[in-house]
Design brief:
The protein is 4% helix and 43% strand. With 449 residues, it is mostly beta strands. The protein has a single domain, classed as YVTN repeat-like/Quinoprotein amine dehydrogenase (Methylamine Dehydrogenase, Chain H), CATH 2.130.10. It has a 4-stranded antiparallel beta sheet with strand order 1-30-29-28, with no helix packed on it. Strands 2-3-4-5 form a 4-stranded antiparallel beta sheet, with no helix packed on it. The protein starts with 21 loop residues before the first helix and ends in an 11-residue tail after the last helix.
């Protein structure tokens, strides 16, 4: 496999584009010594014609970035694939919107997500409320939602369990897709507007195959959010609510060897979700603190859940992804939903903005995913244009400031390139904070908008 990184040059201000093999990247990372100053350079990935895009699908080890992006006019959003410095529209299943909402860990060309069909939800459950264009729901959000698998330019709908909606959240290198699917069972215990129960499922790798994963005993519904190459699956199990947030997550769970395991929590009874798992079985996610007035990101390993906290001054955090090296990325927000992308490694959470090489107009608001080369994708706010584009960032170490790589143009000064940026915290515009609040997993947290 090949990936890419950025050329780190401390003596000039423009970074050039050159290929870099994974062997050189590995050499750079292995030679990094404790105490070496780390910084990142960042690329604006653009949009599909609108003012916003989101790197929610993260980046795989080939440097492909997935997520969703607004079309011209900011009325609809479509799933995208960014590769070869080009953002491609993956389309829909006949409806108005689609997205890759969570990190995709497939290096073989498979992309999974959710897309709408050309039919309004007859039960009014409206899973499409998760599609947000600027500060309102995207046009057509009332339509039914279906999980999809995309490969070689073709988007294919995934089977249901007899209900109306389903959605895919992850796909491993074996071609197994995980997500959730409604059954035909109308459950009077569901919190309106949800009507039907839904279950965690695995699709594939054979076309048309679907397997149900058990809910945790006593819970009503479940959703599978990620799968590693060993077939271990993580997600949520809990109350029957509209699955546009993690609020119904009573248990963060791990499925393995046919069993469902409660990973524990940080003391609360809501917003407990395991969002990502690497091949070492390390898990990250979110869990409420006692009283359910705050939600923190967690790291779980060998039966122990660790609260990794928030960035200073914040009250909420969510870890979205973890790579093979145990590096995690996510989002940390204050009570007004001024959010910042974070990097967590070696037990320390850092505001990714403080590690940027200077000169970028991008303020990184959401860490979506991190690959095994340490490259990070997510969502940013462009202080020059007011747009909110997807980004891709790669790290540079001072000890290897002359390593060759490739990147977009970035600017800086020799002195600044030798230390982390001291960028002040940025107050986001109201519409950007609203979009972050509406984001899947961040809704229902009771924070101010």
């Amino acid at each position: 496999m090949k990936s890419w990184t950025f050329r780190c040059i401390s003596a000039i201000t423009v970074f050039a584009i050159l290929p870099l093999s994974s062997r050189l990247v590995a050499q750079v990372e292995s030679n990094t010594q404790p105490g070496d100053q780390i910084h990142y350079v960042v690329m604006n990935l653009g949009t599909l014609g609108g003012s916003a895009s989101n790197g929610y699908g993260g980046t795989n080890d080939r440097g492909w970035v997935t997520g969703d992006a607004n079309l011209a006019g900011d009325q609809n959003e479509h799933a995208f694939l960014w590769r070869g410095r080009v953002m491609s529209d993956l389309g829909t299943l006949g409806g108005p919107n689609s997205s890759v909402p969570t990190p995709i860990k497939n290096d073989r060309g498979l992309v999974a997500g959710g897309a709408q069909i050309d039919e309004v939800d007859p039960l009014g459950e409206f899973w499409g409320a998760a599609y947000v264009c600027t500060n309102v729901n995207c046009r057509g959000w009332q339509n039914l939602q279906r999980g999809f698998l995309w490969q070689n330019g073709v988007m294919t709908a995934l089977p249901t369990l007899g209900g109306n909606n389903n959605e895919a959240f992850g796909v491993n290198n074996l071609g197994q897709v995980v997500g959730m699917a409604e059954t035909a069972t109308q459950d009077p215990s569901c919190v309106p507007p949800q009507v039907l129960d839904f279950e965690a499922v695995i699709w594939g790798p054979k076309p048309g195959y679907i397997d149900r994963l058990p809910v945790f005993p006593g819970d009503a519904v479940a959703a599978a959010l990620a799968i590693n190459d060993k077939g271990q699956v993580v997600g949520i199990s809990g109350a029957c609510v509209v699955p546009t947030s993690y609020a119904g997550g009573v248990h963060a769970v791990l499925w393995q060897h046919g069993s469902v395991i409660d990973l524990g929590g940080l003391g609360g009874v809501m917003n407990n979700a395991a969002t990502a798992i690497n091949n070492a079985g390390q898990v990250v996610g979110s869990s409420d603190l006692p009283g359910d007035t705050a939600t923190h990101a967690f790291f779980w390993q060998h039966g122990v859940m660790t609260d990794i906290g928030t960035l200073p001054g914040d009250v909420f955090s969510l870890a979205n992804d973890i790579n093979s090296k145990g590096q995690a990325v996510g989002v940390s927000c204050d009570v007004n939903f001024n959010c910042r992308a974070f990097l967590w490694e070696n037990g320390v959470m850092t505001d990714l903005n403080t590690l940027l090489a200077p000169g970028s107009s991008l303020y990184l608001t959401y860490g979506g995913g991190i690959n095994d080369f340490g490259e990070i994708a997510g969502t940013a706010f462009d202080q020059n244009t007011g747009d909110s584009p997807a980004f891709l960032a790669a790290r540079c170490d001072d000890a290897h400031a002359d390593s060759e790589g490739r990147d977009d143009r970035a600017t800086g000064t020799p002195a600044a390139a030798q230390r982390a940026s001291e960028r002040p915290r940025f107050t986001l515009p109201g519409r950007v904070r609203q979009m972050l609040h509406q984001r899947r997993g961040l809704r229902g947290l009771g924070l101010a908008r």
